[in-house]
Each structure stands twice: as structure tokens, then as C-alpha cells.
Amino acid sequence: MDLVPALEEPLKQPLKSVLGPATAKVMAEHLGLHTVGDLLHHYPRRYEERGQLTHLADLPMDEHVTVVAMVADARLHSFASAKAPRGKGQRLEVTITDGSGRLQLVFFGNGVHKPHKELLPGTRAMFAGKVSVFNRRLQLAHPAYELLRGDDPDESVETWAGALIPLYPATAKLESWKIGKAVQTVLPSAREALDPLPPSLREGRGLVPLPEALLKIHRPGTKADVAQARDRLKWDEAFVLQVALARRRHTDAQLPAVARRPSPDGLLTAFDDRLPFTLTDGQRKVSREIFDDLATEHPMHRLLQGEVGSGKTLVALRAMLAVVDAGGQAAMLAPTEVLAQQHHRSVTEMMGELAEGGMLGGADHATKVVLLTGSMGTAARRQAMLDLVTGEAGIVIGTHALIEDKVQFHDLGLVVVDEQHRFGVEQRDALRGKGKQPPHLLVMTATPIPRTVAMTVFGDLETSVLDQLPAGRSPIATHVVPAADKPHFLARAWERVREEVGNGHQAYVVCPRIGDDIDEADPKKAKSAEDDAEKRPPLAVLEVADHLAKGPLNGLRVEVLHGRMHPDDKDAVMRRFAAGETDVLVATTVIEVGVNVPNATAMVIMDADRFGVSQLHQLRGRVGRGSAPGLCLLVTEMPEASAARQRLTAVAATLDGFELSRIDLEQRREGDVLGQAQSGARSSLRVLAVIEDEEIIAQAREEATALVARDPELADLPGLRTALDALLDEEREQYLEKG
Questions:
Q1: Which residues lie closer than 8 Å to 543 by C-beta, 6 or more apart?
Q2: CA 521 – CA 512 distance, rounded (Å)
Q3: Cβ of 698: how many Cβ atoms within 10 Å?
Q4: What are the C-alpha distances in Å from 702 to residues 197, 201, 463, 709, 716?
Q5: Residue 612 in 3-state DSSP?
Q6: What does the alpha-carbon distance between residue 380 and residue 505 come to, in Å, rounded to a whole number?
Q7: Residue 719 CA: distances (Å) to CA of 1, 240, 543
Q8: What is the pLDDT of residue 120?
């Protein structure tokens, strides 16, 4: 990250004698390490403690120990195995003694050659490893060892035994200890590392200088050294990232945009007057934030987070109407055709006759709302595109079909992106490029994002949160149904579905797959209940629907919905379900986002352990949308002690999406917060953990924002500029550019 000429040296050339071209090649190809600086920033994953010196007579089981002893005996054995069928497998057994007892060491495979040459009878050495039992005898398998030479080894023994051994993120081609040796070779260059933190910030927060942090993380004397180094390096990562995002916000603030202010007696007022309910305080507050942004002459970049069912669509629609009022057009981009059609239906229903307008700004306050998706017929598409280019349509709702070159707008003023995480950055960028000046941007997500993730992943967007459910919304009760342990619970689940339908309501059954897309599982017996549940193919919509219609839900009107159906068929199924003509909809996760059927009160999620925490929360949000309480049943065959089962218990225990997203993130880890996950490259965060280091990220954001406001070009901070250049390689630069 923080590179100066000495640290920019390629690993291949200057260190031929040390790393060798083969090692340098593996580092480049498998670890993405190309320069001395890259290697210095490849931090240890953890540290092995060799443990205090132990007498052989007092060895504890399953603990890491260090012993000083003499080799009594060493024998090399050959054996046959799956890997070495012709008896070419090798095992070295070494017996050591320290006078108090004896212990066997064992080495296998290629690992036998070095100790076979060095551990000769009579040799004195230190050995470190984990004590295990084999054939009722204590042993150390593949211990680390250091030969002792000289008369008074006590001093070196103590220091060696107490040392912290760094263990590096490694690959099959390059073991941790080889990486460690390479790091030791380049470690002197750390003294030349240019510090990216402004001196006032570093001193004010009591952080050690960067060269010292690099030395301490790679060669710590104590655990305190490691803690000091990590504190410092976390600040580097958080601060450099937040400076990049602060500069992005600063640049955006300089861009021109058309201010869009709603007219006092226009479309928005007419719409508000016909709403059958009053807005929640949260909706009013977030709308104010959006209207304030729209009224400025630089583009709004706002993230609207809202719990499932908090009324985000209504807030977005009011923003679109305000822009239409001001003479502009608004586009809403949805990730799937089902969702685009759903939004189009709900928007036109909410607007009523206000969606049946002629020209923009017509006296009747009405406008035209058009739908544009890839599967529309040619005539309908041509008409929709004509309405957009002439300005006849104030609002367009569509899928990525909106992005095609042929689609032209009269005056695009606002882009609303629904479920941002389903869209590539390029798609958002292409739609934004369709305005005469950059349009305002509102990104909506129903996946609650912890504050720190919002500050990193969406750090170039201002954030609004809708955390209040509209009045009349009902609570959702969630229960785990352990189908393997208690089959009668599953039978009861289907009875509950019949009861809901008997009371005039409807239900969803969600399955992980469609049904004809996977080979049956390997018939070989699985090892455990957990393996068994894992190895069985996930339950499928087509099979489950068939089983339910013939069995537990016989007599009810059961239909299926999945992504491989023709769009017209999908729409027809959704329309029948919304109209109450279907009792039970067996579906894949196509219903996860945006589907709104207030009469649906029950959901059964089959193989719930196959879904992520946030996804389960999204799915659950499809029920309880009316006045009747919702019921969500999570069916699983996972045993009680498994991590998957604990995850489901967490979902059942809370309706707080922010709490669940924290749990989800802690389990999945963060990936690369700058979007590198999209290209599968390594994470740019090495020591910073987005959830645990919330305080550092918040403080770094404040410091970065203040610094960029004072000095956007970072003229006085060459170290910081260099660190930014290293962080923002071309791909990440584009990601931020388009963010």
C-alpha cells in the first residue's frame, strides 16, 4: 500500500539470490505479491506460540510445547498408501530424551529428508509442536526444531521457546515458513516505508510510525508488539480507504446537476392528497432529506436503507413525482422482470388517474408511467421508447433493458436503483450517462447494512434509514422446524398452512432450486446427519409442489413460480396469486424482493439452512404485510449442534434486520469492500474487520472528510498520495468512479 522506490522493487529481479525466480513467480501468481512493499504488507494471519519449555515427563495432551532434548534414535520406514501404492511412502521416527522421559517424533513424505540428515543420534535440539497420542504413546507430528550448538545454549533456548512464530496466509505452492523467510529478507526495507498518516493524526492517536509497525507485525517480541502494530495498520487501511471515498464525494459535489424542486400545487401534492393513509415520521424525515438533495445543483448520491415493508417504494415514488413536477423524468431500475412488473403495477395503482397523463406538466397534473423490459413485444417497446424520448412519460420502470443504447430520454432527472447489490456498477453508470447532465441517484436496498459497511461499501453515498414499519403492519412469528429430529413438526407445519388458507389467507412455500437442474446425490452413505443433509440435493419447487398437491395440501390450489418460466407466465401466476385465485405458491427466491401480497400470511422455507441470514430475512418479509399476523417456518434437517441450525435459531429470535446483517457478516467475513469481490481478487482489507472495528472506521471517516475539505489534492501528504495510488489500482478506481 505505502510504496517508495525501495519498496517498489519487483520481487523477481533484485532478490534473485534470495527468493529465486520460482518463488517470486508463485508469489505473483498465487498471492498477488509483486513488489517488496506488497510482501511487507502480507501480514501474518496469526502467531504460533512455541510454549514454555516442558520436561518430557510432564507433557500435557493437545497443547503446544517446546522441549530441549537429545536424539536417542532415528529410523526411516517405507510403507504403502493410497498416495504411494508401491511402498514408496516414507516415515521418519525419531526418539528423543531429556533424562526425565522419552518422546517420539514423526515426519512423513517429503518432510522426512531434512530431519533425516540433521537429527542424528546424539544431536541436541529444541523441538516445538502439539502433543498427540498414537498407539497409546505420546508423539509430536512434524515438529518445528532448531539444532543447538555450543556449550551454553540456555540463552538461545529461552528466547527461541518464548518466540511468537508468524503464520502467513499461504498457498499449496508456497508454505507459510517460506513466506516468512522471504519476509525476513526484505524486512530491512521497511525502514524506508513512507508513512501515509498525517503526523498530527498519528501523534494525536498515539500510533507507532509505519516502519516500526511493519517490523513489529513480522517480528514481534511480545503480544503487545502485535497489538500495537495491528492498531496502527488498521488505521492505515481505514484512513486511506475513507480518504478515497471522501475525495469521491468531494468530486461529486463539484459536478453540475439540474436542481429539481416540486411545484407547490403539482403532481406530488395531488398524489399526497389521494393517499389513504398518513406517512410515517420516518418516511417524512427521509423524504425531506431527499427533497433537500434534489433541490441542489450537484447530483444527489443517496442510499435509502429500509427494513422489508418499511415503505421505501412510496418514498422513492414521491421523489420521482417531485422530479416530474419540476419538468424532468425519473427512471426506476429493478433487478428482475417480475420485480419491474410488480413495481409498475403498484406505482400505477398508487397513482390511479395521475398515471394516465398526456404531456409533462399538463394542467391535470397527470403523467404517463411506462414499463420497459427485455421480453416486451416490439410494438409495446417502440411505444414506450417513443414516450420516453418525447417526454410524454414522466416515469419509466424497467430492467437493464433501460440501459440499451437505443433508449433515449427527453430529460432524465432522477435514477432510482432498487436492490443495488444485484446491479453491476457499469449498469448504474450507463443509466446515469443518459441524462444531459448527471441525474440525481437514489439507491434503495432492503438488506439492512450495518453502519460501518455503509461507511465503507457505500462510503460515497449519503445514507438514509427507514426503520419504522407503517401502522397496521403485523408482527411475524418465526419458528425452526427440525424435520429430521421431529418429523411430526413438519406434518404440523402443513396443517398450519391449511388453517391459514381455511381462514381466507394464502401461503408461500420456498425451495432452493427449480427441479430439473441437478444430478441426484451420490448414493454412497454419508458420514453423519449433517453430511447427510448437506449431500442430499436441495429440495426443488417442481417436486415439492407435486408432493404437496397430492399429499399434505391435497385439495388446495397450488401453483409454482420460478425464474425459468416465460415472463408472461410468471406475471400471470403472480396476478392470480395477488387476486387470491391461488392458495399456495411454491416458488424459488424470485419472490425474495418486492413481491407484495398483503393476504399472504404464512411462509414455509424448505431446506432453510441453504439460504443466507439476510436472504431468509428478506423472504420472511413477504408475509405479514396486511393486518393479519405473519408466520414463517424454517424447515431444516440439520442437527441441533450444527452452525447452520444456530444461524436459523438467530433468524427466528429477532426481526431486527440490522442485528441479523451483523450476524451474517460476521459469518461470511467482509470480502473486499471496494468491490473486488466482483472480480474474485484478494481483499483489500488485511487487518481491518468491518464489524469489529466500527469505531476506527467512524473516526477515520471524520478525519478523512476534514482533511479532504482542507486539502482535496493532498498536496502536503506525498505518503498518503502514494498509498492511494496503490489502493486505487485501475479496477478499483473505476469502481469508485462509477459507484
A1: 515
A2: 15
A3: 15
A4: 14, 12, 15, 11, 19
A5: coil
A6: 35
A7: 10, 10, 61
A8: 92
